[in-house]
Amino acid sequence: MTRITCVHQGFELYGSDRSFIETVRLIRAACPTAWIDVVLPRTGPIVAPLEAVASRVVIEPLWILRRRTLPRLATIGLLTLPFAVGRALGRIRSSDLVYVNTSVVADYLLAARVCAGRSIVHVHEIPEGAVLKALKALIRWSGCDIIFNSRATERAFAMPPQVRARVVYNGIADPGRTKPMTYDGSRPLRLLMLGRISRIKGQDVLVEAIDRLPAEIRARIEVRIVGSAFEDAERERALVAAIARAGLSDRVKLHPFVADPAPHFLWADVVTVPSSLPESLGRVAIEAMAYGIPPVVSDIGGLPEIVEQGRNGWVVPPGRADLLAETLTGIVRLPASWCSYPAAARERYRTVFCEAAASQAMIAQLRLILDNPGGALVHT
Question: What are the TM regions of this chain, as residue ranges (predicted)?
Fold first, then answer.
């Protein structure tokens, strides 16, 4: 029996978690008789949907490189690293294929070098500075095959030509429901921001942009910010305080993380992804387009690979609340100027980012390991 191990660093149901679930579903569809172990660092909302497709979900410690935990990992955490690498090595040796979701799962990347040709790492992040250098070195040392989720991610990691790598955009499941253009200026524009509250996502930029709007435009917009901070209640409190200080509590409403964001998407006219730091791709923007909702995204990382400015959405410079406010003002005042965007957004999703578009390329890369261990990926 073919044995496949899929490793993920998360346990929630944010974008990277949902992408992992969809990849495991893809692997199950391609290998219906395989034994598939999913390894997670702890239990959480992600477990239930994985149990529907995996043979077994295993909860065990992983050595995960996160900014918040780096000081601990560099000291007392080093004592646990040999045990973590040993566990990972045991699983790799007993597997025909090991799929490691993201480059921060250090124990599996370290162990992969011992069993060459069995592991593939799917890179979903664009770190900066010393973290980027460390992850690049770790991936190269591991000898893993690589899937990058965008051209921007591939450029950031800048692997030499001999490294076996390929870009495959994330495939997003079709929600089966689309949202026709209903905004004509006669009611407030419904603007949605969905995602983890963090320094990367730009919730603070959005709040500042709404504060900068002319009073008559601010009165014609309703904003939902949906999400929670990752083990950082202080960041959530700071966002609440910033909204209150700006006098925007009647315009900007915070909603907690939800496992199923469909009701929020169906409420929205426009979705915004005002990221301040590079997003490797931008799942929320793609999900919005799947519903036929045009997104406003930052011109950073992989986001401009999703949106075609002036055709199916808007692209603004990152961190520029003034220019985001200017774009939102035009959206509110001139709905006729973007009446074609919803249909164009849906078409962009259907042709580039749907599951069918991604699945063939993804499975082809995994098959190169299953059918020919150690075989080279095509570099594109």
Answer: none
